[in-house]
């Protein structure tokens, strides 16, 4: 019996020593790397100062800050009380929405007489994060209409956020963050390494999750009697240059909108028209994610023709 206990003890000690050596070895080999546990998210300089870590959705914008109001929206001239005779339109989305080009272009098309334009866009957000932000903060402004801008990164995993050396660290994980222990991830290189090794492609499951998030958002808007519509944003490059993953996300998006009966507006035809004329559409050369002012103006004119914003006493459209 003593021999068995001794062997088990030696085995346990060996495992502990092995884990410690593996941890130290990874820290030496990857002093600043995330050892395949995920991909570092890139933000413009100073942007991280606008965020705060959140257990439910990775991060949220800091409210009551220089950039965002108490309602989780970019600061604007509107009061909390609705202006008589005006429709309050709230825009949800990622960096395309946050940077405001499309919102400003729509404002130029529709004018200020009948609408207020509230922007709740957040850099690198996905739909799940946008729903959390809306529930906690945006809903307080009681919008008449919510416009969700849907992009390829809406299929990305909700990010992992933790503090390291007093700084906020953000990364897109290699697997569902719900299956990751954040304490171990923040403190152990070896744990991150194992996460990377255990990763398997789960695109189909992610599509199911995104569809459910859209359904939840749709149901919440219906409950609050808010008109809900979606803009499907294309990548700023010819469709023939999209890779398999980008084509997959577009196919999934259109299928979800159709099955949920969500009123959606596809901007790809507008983009292809501009590209056929040789129009420059990228915010910066090589950036296929963000439209420039010219592209945003064309998109806005097209959306106006399609009747994006509700007019006058137009009844709420229940997308059920």
Write the layout of secondary structure elements.
Elements: H1 2-29, E1 38-40, E2 51-54, E3 58-61, E4 87-92, H2 95-98, H3 101-110, E5 115-119, H4 127-136, E6 145-150, E7 160-164, E8 167-173, H5 182-187, H6 189-197, H7 203-223, E9 227-232, H8 244-260, E10 263-266, H9 268-276, H10 293-305
Parallel strand pairs: 4-5, 4-6, 6-9, 9-10
Antiparallel strand pairs: 1-8, 2-3, 7-8
Describe the structure.
β2 (51-54) and β3 (58-61) form a beta hairpin. The protein is of the alpha/beta class and 320 residues long. It has a domain at 51-158 and 201-305: Rossmann fold, CATH 3.40.50. The protein has helices at residues 2-29, 95-98, 101-110, 127-136, 182-187, 189-197, 203-223, 244-260, 268-276, 293-305, and strands spanning 38-40, 51-54, 58-61, 87-92, 115-119, 145-150, 160-164, 167-173, 227-232, 263-266. It is built from 10 helices and 10 strands. Helices cover 40% and strands 16% of the residues. The protein starts with a helix and ends in a 15-residue tail after the last helix. The strands form 3 sheets. It has a 5-stranded parallel beta sheet, with helices on both faces. It has a 3-stranded antiparallel beta sheet with strand order 1-8-7. A two-stranded antiparallel sheet has the order 2-3.
């Amino acid at each position: 019996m003593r021999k068995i206990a001794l062997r088990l003890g030696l085995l346990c000690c060996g495992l502990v020593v092995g884990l410690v050596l593996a941890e130290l070895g990874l820290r030496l080999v990857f002093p600043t790397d995330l050892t395949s546990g995920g991909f570092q998210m890139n933000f413009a300089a100073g942007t991280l100062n606008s965020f705060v870590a959140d257990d439910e959705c990775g991060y949220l914008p800091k409210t009551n800050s220089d950039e965002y109001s108490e309602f989780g929206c970019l600061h604007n001239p509107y009061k909390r009380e609705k202006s008589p005779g005006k429709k309050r339109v709230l825009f949800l989305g990622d960096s395309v929405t946050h940077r405001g080009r499309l919102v400003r272009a729509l404002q130029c098309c529709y004018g200020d007489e009948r609408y207020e334009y509230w922007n709740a866009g957040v850099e690198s957000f996905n739909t799940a994060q946008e729903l959390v932000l809306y529930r906690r903060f945006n809903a307080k402004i009681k919008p008449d209409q919510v416009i969700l801008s849907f992009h390829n990164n809406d299929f990305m995993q909700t990010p992992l956020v933790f503090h390291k050396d007093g700084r906020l660290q953000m990364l897109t994980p290699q697997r569902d963050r719900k299956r990751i222990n954040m304490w171990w991830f923040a403190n152990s290189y070896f744990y991150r390494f194992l996460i990377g090794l255990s990763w398997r492609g789960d695109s189909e499951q992610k599509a199911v999750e995104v569809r459910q998030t859209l359904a939840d958002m749709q149901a919440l808007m219906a409950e609050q009697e808010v008109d809900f519509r979606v803009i499907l944003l294309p990548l700023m490059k010819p469709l023939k240059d999209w890779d398999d993953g980008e084509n997959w996300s577009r196919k999934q998006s259109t299928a979800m909108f159709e099955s949920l009966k969500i009123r959606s507006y596809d901007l790809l035809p507008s983009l292809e028209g501009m590209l056929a004329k040789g129009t420059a559409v990228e915010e910066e050369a090589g950036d296929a994610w963000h439209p420039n002012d010219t592209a945003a103006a064309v998109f806005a004119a097209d959306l106006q023709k399609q009747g994006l914003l509700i007019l006058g006493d137009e009844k709420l459209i229940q997308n059920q």
